[in-house]
Write a structure and sequence with these properties.
This protein has 82 residues and is an all-alpha fold. It has 4 helices and no strands. The longest helix is centred in the C-terminal third of the chain and has 30 residues.
Length: 82
């Protein structure tokens, strides 16, 4: 995968993987939920200030999930081209 590829660029592969790979579907859903939670908390300055450490932990987890998602996408693409 190119370094500039985004999740949006891979939406067809993601849709396929979500259908056939329950682990992928699970981590993708967790990533999406974390993204939504982080966005909500960051838009609320009072909650953001009081939960900054929690937000940072959520961001680290989200990044771990993103890395795993891209590894699975890359593996799937490699198998498709083999």
């Amino acid at each position: 995968m190119r370094k500039t590829d985004t999740l949006q660029d891979n939406k067809e592969v993601i849709a396929e993987l979500k259908q056939k790979d329950s682990h992928f579907a699970s981590i993708f859903d967790e990533h999406t939920q974390l993204d939504q939670q982080i966005n909500r908390l960051e838009k609320d300055p009072i909650k953001h200030a009081s939960r900054e450490e929690e937000i940072e932990q959520m961001k680290r987890r989200k990044l771990q999930l993103k890395d795993e998602i891209y590894k699975i996408i890359d593996k799937n693409k490699a198998q498709s081209y083999a």
